[in-house]
Amino acid sequence: MAEEPLTVSGATGDSQAEAVMAEVWKDVLGIEEVALDDDFFSCGGDSLLAITVVAEAQKRGLRTTMVHLFKHPTIRGMCGAAVADLPTGDAPTADLLSSADRAKVPAGVQEAVPATRLQLGLIYESLMSDGAKYVCTVAHDIKRPLDQERLEEALTLVASRHEMLRMRFDLSSFSEAVQLVERTVRLPLTVVDHSSLDAAELAERTAEVMKELGVPFDPETAPLVRFHAARTGDESFRLTYAYHHALLDGWSAAGLLHELVTAYVGLLDGNAPEFARPVPYAEYVRLERAAALSEEAVRHFEALAQDMPEGRPAPQSPCMAGYAARVPQGDMDGLFARAAEWQLPVKSLLLAAHGAAVAAERGEQRADVALLMSGRPELEGSGLTLGLFVNYLPLRLDVHDATWVEAARRAFDAERELLPHRRFPHADVLRIVGSRPFEASFNYVHLRRGIQLVEDGLVEPGQFSDVSFDIPVCVDLQNTGDGLHIHIAVDTARHDDAFGNRLMGRLLDALHRIAESPDSAVAHA
Question: Quick one: DSSP state of residue 82?
Fold first, then answer.
C-alpha cells in the first residue's frame, strides 16, 4: 500500500503535495533545502535519479510520472501536472503467459515470463556470431582480504535475491521465447592467488582471465554469469566477472557489484547485510508489452522517418577498435557549472557535443543518432532490480545556427520528446525509421554506486572492461567520481583508421567550447 501523504497544518491540497514532494527531493538528491521553483537538474538530478523520485513520490501518495518531471522539472511544476488517476504498482496484473504456456513450466522453476524484445534481439545476434557478441567482462580491485567461503556466501545471498542471476532462456518449448527463473542456482566462482605477480604480469594475467570468462554463454543454461577472484595481496583481490548482455545492462552490472561487495564486506565483518526488496523483472516486461501497442509512438517515429537518409550497408565482418580519453578537469568543472547555470542535466550538454561531433564528421547540419534510454519501472525498489532495461531510440539534433547553450536545450527537448516512448521496442523502431540513426550511439551514466564503493574505501577507482556490440560507432561517457571518461568503439570495417581519433578530437573540442565559450556558434567548432 502507498503511504498516506504527509499532513501540513493549514495547508491546501496543492501545498500539502508540494511539501511531500520537497521531502522526496531532499531524500533522493541528498540536499538539505529546496525551493518550489528550484530546477531538478540544477539540484543534481538526472534521468536515473528521476526514476527514484517518481517511485518515492508514488509511494508517499503522489500521482506523478517521469514525463511530468521532465516537462515540469520543479516541485511546483510536477505537482501542478500530476494526474489523479495514475495506476499504482499494487494493482492486480494478469499472467504474462498463456494458460497453455503456464502449464508447460517445468517443476523447480520459480517464475516464467516472456523474454523482452531487446533480449531476443541480443540473443539472436549473439547466436549469429557463434556467441561472440554481447558477452561483457569487467574487473575491479577490492580493498579487502580474499575469503573464499565468505565470497561464496555473498554470491549465494545475491543470487537468492535477484531473479536474473538464476535465469535462463527457453527459445523453443513455448509459444514464444520465455525466461525461466530457477529456484536455486550456484554462481560459478574460480579462486586463485596472483599475489606474486608484478603490475605488468597482473595486467597480462587479467587479460587472459577476461578472455577465459568471456567465452560464449549458452542462453538456455543458467546462470548467465561467471565470477573469478584473484588474491593480489594480504588486503586485496581482483574480482572479475562476465555476463550475457541479455541478462544485465550497465547500471544493473554496477548494482550487482555494489550489492555483492556490500554483502561480502558485511559477512567478512560478521554483520549479516540487509537489503530492500527489488521489483520483479516481470513488471518491466509488462510495461514493454503495453508500450509496443502505442499508436502515439508509431506516429512519432513515422514522422521522424519521413526525411531520414538511407543507412549504409553493414559490412560482413565488423572489426571494432576502441579509443579512450579523460575530459580535462577544468572542462569537466566548466560543464557542470554550465549545466547548473542553464538548469539542464549534464547529459544534455554531453549529448549536444556528441551530436555536433557526429554532424561535423558527416558534413551535415544535424545529427540522427541512437540514444540509450532506461525503461525501468517507476516503482519502489526498481532501482535495485537487476536486468536489461535499456533501449536504443533514434534522436534528431539540429545544430544549425545554434550556440552551444541552444544546442544543449535542443538536446534536452529532443530527449524529453522521446521519454513517453522509451519502452517502445527497438526492433519496431528500426523497422519504421531504418538503420541510419543506429550507426552512432550515445550513452552517459553517472556511476553513483561504484563511486560510493570507492568513497567507502572498498573498491579501487577504475575498472577493466570488454564487450562487443553491433553498432558501428558507440560513444560512452562515464562519470566515475574521479573524472569524466570517454570511451568510443568504432567499426574500422566501415570507417577509416583515423575516424576514431578524429571523432574523439571533435568531441573533446566541443566539450571544451561548451565549458569555455558557451555563446559561440556550434558551426565554428
Answer: -
